Structure formats: structure tokens, C-alpha cells
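fwd from M.: "can u put these together and see what the complex looks like"

so here's what she sent:
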Amino acid sequence: MPQSSYLVPRRNMDRRASKFRHRIRPLRLFCVAWLAVFLLTSAGDAFAEESFGKPSQEPPNEDRYIYKRIPDVSVTTASGVQSLSSIWRDKPLLLTMVFSRCAGVCSPFLRSLNSAISDAGGLGAHYRVLVLSFDPQDTVADIETMAATLGVKSNADWIFGVASPSDIKRLAAVTGFWFQWDQASEQYDHPSVVVAIDRGQVVRMLAGASVPSASLREVVQELRGKFVASYALAGKVAFRCFEYDPHSGRYTLDWGLALMLLPGMCAILATAWVFAFLPSSRRKRSLL
Amino acid sequence: MTAATGEPVLWNEAELAEFRRMTLVWGITVLLLLPILALLGYFMRLYQSGAFSGMRAEWFYAVLTLHSLGMVGTWFVGSMAGVSYLLLKYARPSLGVSKFAYIGTLLGVLLLIACTLGGLFGTGWYFLYPLPLFAQGVWAPWATFTFFLALTILGVCWTVWTLDMLRAIAQRYSLGAALGLNYLAGKSGPELPPLILITTVSLIVSLSGFVAAVIVIALFAARALGVNVDPLLMKNLTFFFGHDLVNITMYLGIAMVYELLPAYAGRPWKTNRVVALAWGAVLFLVLFAFFHHLYMDFAQPTWIQKFGQICSYLLAVPAGVVSIFGTLALVYASRMKWTLASTFFFLGILGWGIGGIAAVIDSTVEVNFHFHNTLWVPAHFHTYYLMGVVLIILGFIDHTGKELSGLEEKPSLSKLTTALLLIGGYGFLFMFYWGGVHSVPRRYAIYPREVMQGTFYARVAVGFITLLLVGILLYLWETGRRCLKALT
């Protein structure tokens, strides 16, 4: 909802206040006070509708949202209004939420998503992409402009749309998405997330300023119905045992496995040391 | 006293008396811990049967943690003390190190009691990463710290003890001789007592387990400092350590049987090529069998799961089949002197076999799909612990108590004790197996509606545990009396 629609411009309020200053009556004073309270409350509501969720420096935790069922919200696109379930029913879906006035991460993020999709392949055959605006001010035309800028307006597997604020909040609640209006910059603060939806459930989430091709390839493998048993979570993990290669679908050994070999090696070395070098009453100090 | 190599082992009487005294102290400590830890197990089955409905479930998990770690630790030190004593015939383990291990063990146990019963630390023995660091308000950070401090103290003491026993063996035998390589090469000498062979194999494996524990504790510390660690690595290392420790306890118990049972049977039990090959194979296979604990961790590549199943199957052959077959061959048609100790040795080997079969069943991936984290798991490890190595160690303590006190046993009381332990023990275990077959999950303080039959099974188990506890008390009365007499 546009922020300004609920606010009376300051200069108008000042003018009205100066009129009342000369002819104050108790009833009028009460009315003015009531009006002021109403306006302030309404303004508060307007701010509340501009933000949703708890801002965090950390990306949404996939563990909390995996397999959550996606609400069947209404999405308005250039083709008309349709339910979200009608979009994911045929094919799995990659959902991302942006806003058209975004001067920050939205456009670079969409570009990296487009690039990763080109690299991973399978768009249209195995999945589609839905770019949804979470800004109540955005219209279908605004979001379509983003599609045109990205160069995917004519691609039917890229769907750009808007939804009502309440539907956006329902979607955000099950995907860990949040957005907060920053009055100073007149921009939303929000994370960049791609949510993979299969049969109406969250199956994977990718968060970050860009979409790494390798990560998206894993997601696409899953959307193709292939089970990806292990993948890197957000944040660095030290000493992983195995690394999944989404190119080949195989596992490669990682440094963690070296730690697994350490106990056995230490035991052998310690035993060899004890038998070879400690004082012994044996005549021959041979190891064997 | 002479070593098997023919060289004299220099023990003077005062040293021997001191070592015997220390062994009795270990034995009495084990006998004191046994009823306490058994009562904790009794409490848990009572809790699951609904006897303490007003009590917070957190108590169940704290008691579970203390019971499991306490039992594993108690029988490990019991088997180490036993083997250390039996080694006196062949080598010179250090009395000072044994005392050091004793003090460290006491300190570790006190800290474990403090963090579990005092701090409600309730992660279970496996303290699976990163659970200890995320208490959700159930236990305080000091409890987590105390828990890891206890593990560190126990780990350091037991590692030093292990190294000292290896040192003692190394003074008399080369590594090749201690591992029986001369038998594998077809040579007949020098003669190697099975005790030395099995102990050497077990100590090497336990060293690797302790190193794994050190790495786990270090990585927990790294996580506490903000470094994310791969949970799969942590689980692998934790079970590497835990599986090895439990297996080593069992193997050390077997070593005691190899050493002591022949005297009751009136026949020798010597190392030969098959025995040397079997225990050599154990040294390799036991390091990889632990993978069967991670079958349900699908992030582990399939080839590792297959390797884990193959190693688990193969491990049963050398250690289990060779030793069980050897025991039966030793006893068959012999003039066996059946005392409480020899009966416990024999029954302990059979219990190991029964528990081992249940373990092999569960180590089959297809079966594990159904039995994983059900009561089948505690069923099998309680079988080879309670009816296996525990009986063997109790047999050893009884044997030593009789030997050093000169007090004879009462055959009727021994038979009653054995009968109570067998009926109570196997009855209690049967309810675990029965629960496992009916998909009753393990580690549940209160059973949900879907598996409410677990409550009934727990009530039946409580009856059997009561019999078991009476048997334990009878044993403690008789054997404890002899040990105290020998000590004083």
C-alpha cells in the first residue's frame, strides 16, 4: 500500500492548525484531538503494512522452512489473475520476490538467476520461474518492465506478477522472507532468496546476493526428481567429509575425511613408537 | 613368575601385593558402581512404564546420559584393570599409571554425576553434534563444560593407561610377536599367550578411538568459538570412538576368558594360526564396522554404507565365531570345574554370541531401515554387555576375590545368583527385542499414542529387572565379601 495515501501532508496540517488556533471550542477541540489520534494511528498502520517479518543479517534458515506448504495465493500477471497452485501444478517452480523500485540487489540478483538458469538448463522442461513483487505499489506493468529489462518478457516460463499485501505476507511467512521499509532511503530492506517449490512444498532455498550456478544445478537436479542427499548450507562449514558435484552427480572426498583417517594413523604411529623406541628388555629392539 | 618367553619377570612380593591391592580397589569400585548404575536403568524403565508421570522428562534424559556413559566407562575400566592384573604374569604394567587412571576415573565420574544429575545435561552418551551446545534452557552452559571436562579427563587418563599397557607388552614382545605374525608366517615360536595377542589388538584400537574423541572435543571447542563443523564428520568421529570403546571392552573381556577359562577346563588354550589371523582381522575390521551406525545418514555415500555392512558381517567371523567355537571346544568333554566365575565366563561368551547375532541382523541395511532407533538397538548392546562382558568381568572379580581371600563359594547360592541373573537379564532383554520388533522407539521418556504398547513392555521389563537386581545384590554380597576380605 502506498505510504503517502494514509498521510496528510504536513503543510496542510499546519494550515488547519493555524485556523483552529483562533476559534477553539471544546467540541471542536475534542474532534480535532480525535482526528489527530485517528490519523496518527492510521499512519502507524500504514508503516506496519510496509514491513513484514523480522530483519536479520543472516539468510533465511532453510531447515525451518523445508517442506512447508505454500499457500495458494492469487497472482496477477499480464495474462490475468491465476492461483499459485495452477502455476506449480504442471511443473515445479522457482519463486523469488523483488520490487520494481529497487535500487539495490533485485536486478543484479535476477540477472544472476537468469545466468544460473541458462547454465543449469531445464527451464520450461522441468521447472518455471515466478518473480513476484512484494511492494504494494507495484503494478503488473511495473513488474513487466523488470521482465523486459531482464530480456525474458517473451519467455512464457518466466512469470512476473503481483499479489495482494495479505497474500505476500502469507507467502513470506512460509519462506522466511521479510521486508522492511526504510524511510530515509525510500527503499525496502529485504533478503534475496530463491525458493524451489515442488508439489506445493518448499524443497530448497537459495539465499545470497547472487545465485551460484553450482547451487542452482543442485536445485534443478532435485526438481528433476533426482535425490540430492547432501549440499552445502549457507555459511562456511569446516572439514566437510564429502562434496557433492552437481555436474556429475557424484561425491568427491573432502578434507573432513582426512580427519577420519587421523585416529587410525595416530594409533599406528603411537604403537610403532612404543614398540620401537621405548626402553625394552628384549634382546632385539626390532619392530617385528 | 616367568614370562611365556622364558625370561623371568621381576616382581617382588611387595610389588605384587600392591598390584593385587590396586586390582581389588578397581574391582570393589566396579562393584559399587554396578548397583547404582543399574538402578538408574531401573528408573528409566519405570519412567517409561508411567511410574513417574509427575516428573519432568528431562530427568529421564539426564539419567539416560549418566547410565550409558557410566556403564560403558565402568566396564571399560573393569576390563582394563582385569587385563592389567592378568598381564602381571607376562609383563610389567605400571602400578603408578593404574593409580593415576583410578584417580582420573573417579574425578571424571564425579564430574559426570554433577553435570547430569546436578545440571540435567541430557544428550545421551553420543552427545551428538551440535546438541550439547544448544540446550534450549534445559541445562546450563556449565553442565556442557563440565561434561566435556569429564570426557577430557577420562580420555587423557585412559590413553595414558592404554599406552602404559602397550609399553609393558613392548618390553617383552616385539610388535610382530605381540600380533602373532610369526604364527601367520608358519613359525611355531616364540609362544604367544592369547591374552597378549588380544590385548595388543584391543589397545591399538582403543588408542585410535581416543584420538577420535580428542578430535571430536577439539571440534566442539571450535564450534563454541564460532567455526561451523560438518555434522556428518562429527557423527562419524563420535561413533568411531564410541563403537571402538564398546568393542574394546568386549575384546578385553574375551582376553580374560582366554586366560582364565583353561584353568577351569583343565586344558590349554593356545594361540595358533587361526587365532592370530582372526585377531589380526579384528584389528582392521573394527576400525570400519562403526559405519553401520550411520546407515540412515543418507548424506553418507552409498559405497561407505556397503563397506560398513561388509565389515560388520566380517567382524563377526574372526572375533565371534573363532572365540565362541574355541570356548565350546575347550569346554566340550572336559572335566570342567563349574564355579560362579567359570559359569559367568561361559555364559558371557554365549551372551556375546547372542548379542552379536542381533547386532549383525541390525547391521544389515535393509533390516536397519526398520530397526534403526527402535528398542532393538539397546536390546543387542545390552545383550553383549549385560549378558556378555559384564558377566565376564563379574566372573573375573569373583575369581580374583576367591583367589586372594581364600574364601570358598556356596554352590547353592551361586546357582541361585546365576539363575536370577539369567532369568532377570534375558527377560529384561526380551522386552527390548520385542519392543524393537514392534517399532517402539528408543530414547523416548514417554511413549506417544502410536507406540503405546511400549509402556506395557516397559512394565513387564520392570518385573524382570527386579529379579536381575536381586541377583546382582546376591552376587555383591558374596563376591563383595570376598573382595573386602582380600583387601583387608
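replying to her w this: Confidence is low (pLDDT under 50) at residues 1-6 of chain B.
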